[in-house]
Amino acid sequence: MGKWTRRGFITAGVVGSGAMVIGVALRPGHTTPEAAKLMAGDTEAMISTWVKIDSDNHITAVIPHSEMGQGAQTALAQMLADEMDASWEQVSFVEAPAEDVYANWAAAKGFILGDTAVPKLLVGTVDGLFMQASKAMHLQITGGSASIRTTGVYGMRVAGAAARQMLMEAAAADWAVDIADITTIDGMLIHEASGKREPYATFAAAAGKEKPPLSPQLKTPDQFKIMGKNKPRHDIPSKVDGSAMFGIDASVDGMHYASVKAAPVFGAQVASVDATAARSMPGFVDVVNLDDAIAVVATGYWQAKQALAAVQIEWTATGNEDVDSENVFKAFQADMETADAAGETNSDMQVGDTASEFDGADSIISRQYKVPYLAHTCMEPMNALARFENGQCEIWTGTQNPLGCRYDVAQALELDVENVSIVQHTMGGGFGRRSKSDAAIQAARIARAVGLPVKLIWSREEDVQHDHYRPAVASNFRATLNSAGQPQAWENLYVDKHEPAEAPHIPYAIPHQKIHYVDSPTHVPFGAWRSVDHSQHGFFVESFIDELAHEARQDPYQYRRNLLADHPRHRKVLDMAAEKANWDTPLGENRGRGISLQESFGSLVAEVVEVTVIDGNVSVDRVVVAVDAGFAVSPDGLTAQMESGVVYGLTAALYGEVSIDEGRVKQTNFNDYPMLRMSESPVIETHIINSHETWGGAGEPGTPGIAPALTNAIFAASGNRIRELPVSKYDFTYEFREQRES
């Protein structure tokens, strides 16, 4: 956290009547003139900017991240405001537009370099390269739990500190005093000896003329006034009073509605369409062939949906019409066995000599785990409003990557990107699903075809059956234990490696490790799902380590703890969860506790779940979470994200299953793809550790550990060992029961 020389050049300029903007440049002294055309009123303009100070001393943070309930925009504004020594009441934020100059270089740099030191002379070049790369990738993504740990750390804090220093220098020059004698508080510059006191706005123009500092002095945690505090989220009031604009709320004059039905088997195309019956229905306007889908446009959404149901569609064959979930998993297993026998697996990690350990072992513990495809099922279904006129396409939607969405639409319509604009809205859930641009592309194609503004809304059935799913995965484990019950060899073979690369890796001190994988592709489209590969491997690893503890006849918490001697930070989080959950206190008959530990997205999370298993039913009673994200910028926000991650993960662990039948998704709606209800939600307690290590993320780390903690608790309560999700597949009255050992 001390190597700030690499974190970006800051450049400033004067715009309008006394407004100062602070931005990150490609090299010292460089500005981006084209940004001046964006978001410009009569008295101000933006120049590749993170923050501006208006003449009334109001500070606006420009945030290159989307809002989908996680509160990142507020937390990022907190980081900037604190480094500026501004009061929270004088700070607001706006979301950055979908323009190249707002490609998020800080996110790219944080992902790739992290805290790697960059020589001072190369900082400008490195940041310039990341800016160019971000533009080339159209990167404005909100995901990967990256807002705080990349944009906040590399962008907002640096820009805020630079602005404060420049304002102090301008005041010192005007007052003819030593800058060391100037202090700041609540957006004011103060010189105690002379009694002079002025708002930041007084010196905004003068400060903007000066070359910004390369490495502004950042606050230490003991100096924080806004970071680490629970400040009111600026997005909450509009969500409470109903004025918040979600994508599905967008409206323009002359707007019509569209409903869409895509090919049920992924990859199929439209073979023929008969819309005779639909054309006579009330409100019908037109039918549009989208190649792999059919859309109906009508005067209202209900009319469009009803007319679509009356359209007769024939689809082309793909060769995948006989694929079902059972043979998907059979193929996984066959591919693993074949590749392993031939020595043709892909190496993920190799430590020590597992082959010798297994060859000399008296006994080998082998287990197999499986998880199904999962849908995202955001509460707000996929939607987009499009208007296509005079070669120009406007899109109103909520997306996790506005800049990327703009380029995707332009490419799909074969337009220059300058002819496409995105009006970004708040999202009713994202979880990775809204990083895809499919709905926006469909809306744009439909609007162009009919020559009318069209709001496309996916039905819930379409949303469930044409998602980009979390992949189904199978994972095989083997391990050996020494005479003390400690694991000596660990082997994990799984199918299909995605992101992040470290997801299958373990923190436990096992001398011989072999982690490898095989490719076993299916025709089912996949995409990012909250916590991505950590959600699968978290369940696999923390289930298997629990089984090893059982084989060793040792307490699961202590067993993990003993294997973490080289990881005191992990141990502290694990200890906190066990302590707060009263781990050593018996729960009574038919009740049990399970524990898990997961490192993901720079954060450590331990979870303890308490369950009751009685009369064949599982009740999740309590979840205790301990989290170390380095530092909690907004403790309430971090707590909310842990709770959200737990609920989302519990839904998946208890009920989540997208099954394939005849090449298509079998589930249709919440009747057969259920979610955790409020009445089923457990008490969730979150305990935060501020270790002040490298700051991590919050949006996803609460999800991976909940499934194994749950299933480990079910085993403790009932003797049922769950190796395949969801839990609802099991009948706890008699099936899959193992003999528990005392």
From TrEMBL:
Coiled-coil ranges (or none): none
TM annotation in the entry: 7-26
Alphabetical keyword list: Membrane, Transmembrane, Transmembrane helix
Keyword Transmembrane helix in record: yes
Top-rank taxon: Bacteria
Domain Aldehyde oxidase/xanthine dehydrogenase a/b hammerhead: 241-319
UniProt keyword annotation of Aminoacyl-tRNA synthetase present: no
Gene3D superfamilies: Aldehyde oxidase/xanthine dehydrogenase, a/b hammerhead (3.90.1170.50), Aldehyde oxidase/xanthine dehydrogenase, molybdopterin binding domain (3.30.365.10)
InterPro entries in UniProt: Ald_Oxase/Xan_DH_a/b, AldOxase/xan_DH_MoCoBD1, AldOxase/xan_DH_MoCoBD2, AldOxase/xan_DH_Mopterin-bd_sf, N-heterocyclic_Hydroxylase, OxRdtase_Mopterin-bd_su_IorB, TAT_signal
Pfam families: MoCoBD_1, MoCoBD_2
Native source species: Candidatus Litorirhabdus singularis
Protein name: Xanthine dehydrogenase family protein molybdopterin-binding subunit
